[in-house]
Fold each of these.
Amino acid sequence: MIDQLRLATLTPASIQGTSNMTFIIKDPDAESFNYTLDSPSAELTSLVDKLFDETGLNRQVHKRGLKLILLNLIVYKGSKVLISRDNNSKRLSRYNSLDAGVTAINTVTDELEKSAYIHFITGKNLPFGNGIRSSIQATSTLNSLLEPITLQLAPSELVLLRGDELDGSKKLIDCTDTPRTVRIRKELTAYNELLGSVNVEVRNLSDLKALKDLNHQIVQRKFIDTGEVDIQGRPLFNSGGRSYSAWSSLSGSTERPHIFMDGQPTIEVDYQASAINVIYRALTGAVYAGDPYTLSVRGLKVSRHLVKAVATTSLNSKTVKGTSTTVGSIYGELAASLKLEDLAKYSDYQSTKKKVKIKDILEAFLNKHNPIRHIFLRGKEVGNKVQCLESDLVFAVVNELTKRSIPTLTIHDSFIVKASDKETLDTLVATTDFPDQDLVKGLI
C-alpha cells in the first residue's frame, strides 16, 4: 500500500550526517480509532448481526468489537483508521462504551479482512523514528452497506483526559469530575444534539451536487494532564482541550468554502492571530491593536507566514535553537508538497534566511510584543495552556450559538456557519469572554 502513503525526502539539513534519502513517514491520512463510540441505530444493529453470522464470529465481545469497528468506519467516511495490534493494550471503561478490547478488535479485523470487507495495512517500524501504524479501511463492498445507515451517536465520554506528552505518554487516563468538566460535558452534549439535526456536506458549486458527507460526527474535547490539581486533588483541565472532527481536516482553500448546511451556503470566520491575541486578552484585557505578525528586521519586511511560524513554534519551545530547528523542519516538509502555495512559502523561507536568521526574527518579534514576551520560550507546558484558553474561547462562542439554535463547525480557531448567521457570529466573536477566569489567572 505504498502508494497510499506520503513520501518525503529528508536532506542533510533535517537529518545530520546522511545523504539525500527517501523515507516513508507516518500516514497523514489515517484517523485515530475512537473507543468511546456507540449508537442505538437499529440499522447498524441489523448490519452487525448480518456480518457477525457471515464471518463466523461466535462471542459477544466480538459482536461488540464488530459494532465499534463499523462505527469508526462510518464516522471517518472511508478514511483509513489506525488500530493497535498490541493485545496487552488496556482501555479504561470510561472511554470504552462497548467494552471491546484490543484482542477482540484484532480478531474481528482478521475476519473482516478474510471476508474482503476491509483492507488491512500492516504497520512497520522504519529508521530515524519514522514508521507506519497499522490501519484498516472499508472496501467498496462494505462501504455500500455502511452508507445508508443513519447514526445517533452516544459516546461514553465527551471530555477526554490524556497523559502529558512531555513524559512520553498520550494514553487516555481516568479522572475525577470537577464543576468545570460537568459544565463542559453538558455544553458538548447540547452542541452535538444540535449538530445531529443538521445536514452537512461538501458540494460542487457549479451544479450543487453533494461531493462529501460530513454527518455522523461527534465533537469531543481532549485535555492534557499536567499534574496540576485543585484543592480537592482533581485535575484542572487547563491544558490542550481541542476538538477534532471530519471537517477539521478539510482543505481551507478547496473544500471548506464548499460546505453547505441544510442546503444553505456557509461562511468561515476566525479569530485573527488567535494564539497571540488570546495571550494579550489574558494578560492585558485587550487584543493587540493591528496585525501582531507584521514585522521587519533590519529594514527587511518578513513574510507574515514566516513570522507566524516562528511565533507559534517559540510558544511551544524552550530555546531559540529549538525554535530555529523546528521552523526549518516545518518549511522542509513544504519543499516536498505538491501545492504551489506551499512551494512558494518554502522558496520565500529559503530566500529570507539568507538575509536574516530565525533567531533575529524571533528577537524582533519578542521586542515588538514586550508585554507578553515572558510567555514564550517556556516549552509545551505553557503552549498547551494557551491552546486551552483558545479552545475555551472558541467553545464559549459555540455555546452561545447553540443556545440560539445556530449550528457551527469549529476548526481550531475558526467557525463555519450558514452565511445568514454571520452577523450574529461576528458579534459573539467580538464580545464573548473566557468562561473560566481562574485558568486565565493561571497563565499569568
Note: The longest strand covers residues 264-270.
Amino acid sequence: MLISAWIKYGTSSVVGRNQRGETYWGKIAQYCNEYCLFDSPRDLVACRNRFNYMSKAINKWIGVYESAKRLQGSGWSKDDVLAKAQELFACGKNVQFTLKEEWYALRDQPLYGSQMGGNVGSGSSGSNRSHEDSVGSSTRPMVERQLKKR
C-alpha cells in the first residue's frame, strides 16, 4: 500500500513531488492509514522511514538483477534470471529478497524504469542527439537548411 501511495502522490503530474516533505509524506501516510488495516495509525515519519528502507533494498535488487541479466545464458527464462539474482542478492548468506511485489509495482515508474529495465522512456543516458549527430555528420535536417539560407 505504501508503494501505491508513493506512485499516486510521487509520480502524479498534478500533485507531483514539488511540495514540502511534510505535506508529501503526510498525504502518503494518510492514504496508507485510510486503505490499510494497521493496529495503530502510521505517521509520516514511519511511512518515510519504511519507504527509504524499501527503496534501499529495491535499489540493491536492481543492481543484482542487472548483473544476473548480464550473466544470462542461452535458453534462460525470466525465472532463471530471478533465481540467479536471488543467489547474487544473498551473497552466500541465508537472505531472501522479500520485496518482489513492490519491485514489480515500481518497474515501470519513471524514477525506477531506466534502472529496472522497465517500459518507461527510451533508456538513453539523457542525450537526445542521435549517434549520427554526435559523430559529426555533415547532413542537416531540412528545416535547418532552410533557416540557414535565410
Note: Residues 44-70 form the longest helix (27 residues).
